[in-house]
């Protein structure tokens, strides 16, 4: 991974539209008990259904904490890739990398600082340190 000190816009990159073709979908497995009832079990069933539906059209990768790997692998078909990646909560769009592209189709990833939407003052949960590392780990 190469770190740049410029901005994507300055270098001619833009955020693709949600309607544009992409190569796959990333998800994080829900389990946080203060966010998901019953240890996340109902949410896990729903996430599994969503992952399976998406996998019929594109590659899906689900990141899971090590203590949930066997559970997720058991709930998901072989059509869904499962990887062990430490995380605090399941909102990959907020803590994961943002992919941008230029007019030639080159991709770049942006790794934002994540602090649970407010840090120690107004953050929605603590800790969030694993979430802050999700993008970097995923990209490596």
Automatic annotation (TrEMBL):
Which Pfam families would you find in this protein's record?
PAD_porph (PF04371)
UniProt-listed GO biological process terms = putrescine biosynthetic process
Query: Can the keyword Nucleotidyltransferase be found in this entry's annotation?
Result: no
Give its E.C. classification number: 3.5.3.12
Could you state a single Gene Ontology molecular function term? protein-arginine deiminase activity
Q: What class of enzyme is it?
A: hydrolase
InterPro entries in UniProt:
Peptidyl-Arg-deiminase_porph
Keywords for this protein: Hydrolase
- PANTHER family per UniProt: AGMATINE DEIMINASE-RELATED
Name by which UniProt lists this protein: Agmatine deiminase
Q: Which organism is it from?
A: Pediococcus pentosaceus
């Amino acid at each position: 991974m190469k770190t740049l000190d410029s901005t994507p816009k300055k270098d001619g990159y833009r955020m693709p539209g949600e309607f544009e073709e992409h190569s796959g979908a990333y998800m994080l497995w829900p389990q946080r008990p203060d966010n998901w009832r019953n240890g996340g079990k109902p949410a896990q069933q729903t996430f599994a259904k969503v992952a399976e539906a998406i996998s019929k059209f594109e590659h899906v990768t689900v990141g899971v904490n090590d203590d949930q790997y066997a559970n997720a692998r058991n709930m998901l078909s072989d059509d869904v890739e499962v990887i062990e990646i430490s995380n605090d909560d399941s909102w990959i769009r907020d803590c994961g990398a943002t992919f941008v592209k230029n007019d030639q189709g080159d991709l770049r990833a942006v790794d934002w600082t994540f602090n649970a939407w407010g840090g120690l003052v107004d953050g929605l949960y603590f800790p969030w340190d694993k979430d802050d590392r999700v993008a970097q780990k995923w990209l490596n």
